[in-house]
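check this:
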Amino acid sequence: MRSYQLTLDAEQDLREIAEYTVRVWGENQLKKYQDGLLKTINQIVESPYSGKLVSKKHPELLAVKHQQHIIFYLVEDPITIIGVIHEKRDIVKHLYQRLE
């Protein structure tokens, strides 16, 4: 069975999401959002090639959307989540820095 790991950047993304969600919508909403993110990540682990191809240059990089965030991951063993980036952020900039 596959598993997953988070890069330091992805961990930071999740901390920022948690801080923002608590500040704006409270603890109950944070729990709901975290549960949804975990469910999406588990779906990625179960079916890693179900994500969308992000780059021809990096065919191992796929993405799945969860509400307003996009989970970017590398299909390897274990699955490596490199980012959980809000759709309104400069996604190209963030990915470029993380793939260098």
About this structure: The longest strand covers residues 79-86. The chain has a mean pLDDT of 94. The two ends are 29 Å apart (CA to CA).
